[in-house]
């Protein structure tokens, strides 16, 4: 997604959150995930390996090696 699309998606997610709605989002942009969501999962080989807040998930070595290095 381009910057304008991320802004639109971020506003949509916040509006849904305020209404008590849940959104399933598959995204690889780590910076967007850190700012837009409350809970995330890290998947590997089609399986959920790590779950938690963005800070918790991004703090795991396996996640750092996959996305941040």
Question: Can you walk me through this structure?
Answer:
- The chain starts with a helix and ends with a helix.
- It is α+β, with helices and mostly antiparallel strands.
- The longest helix is centred in the N-terminal third of the chain and has 16 residues, at 3-18.
- Strands 1-2 form a two-stranded antiparallel sheet.
- The model has no long low-confidence stretch (mean pLDDT 89).
- It is globular and about 30 Å long.
- It has helices spanning 3-18, 30-36, 54-58, 61-68; strands at residues 40-44, 47-52.
**DSSP helical segment count:** 4
Principal-axes geometry comes out as globular
Unreliable parts:
none
Tally of strands? 2
Helix content: 40-55%
In whole angstroms, the N-to-C terminal distance is 21 Å
SSE sequence, one letter per element: HHEEHH
The largest β sheet comes out as: 2 strands, antiparallel
Class by alpha and beta content? alpha+beta
Measured by DSSP, the beta-strand proportion falls in: 15-25%
Q: Over the alpha carbons, how many angstroms does the gyration radius reach?
A: 13 Å
């Amino acid at each position: 997604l381009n910057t304008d699309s991320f802004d639109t998606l971020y506003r949509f997610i916040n509006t849904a959150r305020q209404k008590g709605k849940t959104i399933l989002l598959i995204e690889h942009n780590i910076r967007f995930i850190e700012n837009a969501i409350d809970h995330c999962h890290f998947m590997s080989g089609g399986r959920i390996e790590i779950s938690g807040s963005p800070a918790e998930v991004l703090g795991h070595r396996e996640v750092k090696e996959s996305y941040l290095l």
